Amino acid sequence: MPLLGAFAGTNKLLQSAAAWRWTSGVSGAVLLGLTLFMGSAFAESAYYDYIFYPKEKVGEGYIMPLRWQDIVARVSIACVLIGLLLLSTYLLRSAFRRQNSEIAVN
Asked: Where residue 100 falls among pLDDT bands split at 50, 70, 90?
């Protein structure tokens, strides 16, 4: 934020902070929506692969994906989704946080 103020100038700092908050809020909301959508697809595929299909296809010789590559891929995808979720919540919190000038006026 100090670099943004240095580039925008001190006269336009309040206007640039408002633009920064709008940008942060919109990007956080879009990122949160996409993360939740990808997370639901990830959870659905994990449910079918590890819970539903093994129960339904017991007699057909269904092999559950339990190789180490499958587990590492699932864990890495889950870590990326958690990171994106944390990033989107940080962006949304910074967009809706009160500024020091708003607290001083109120």
From this structure: low
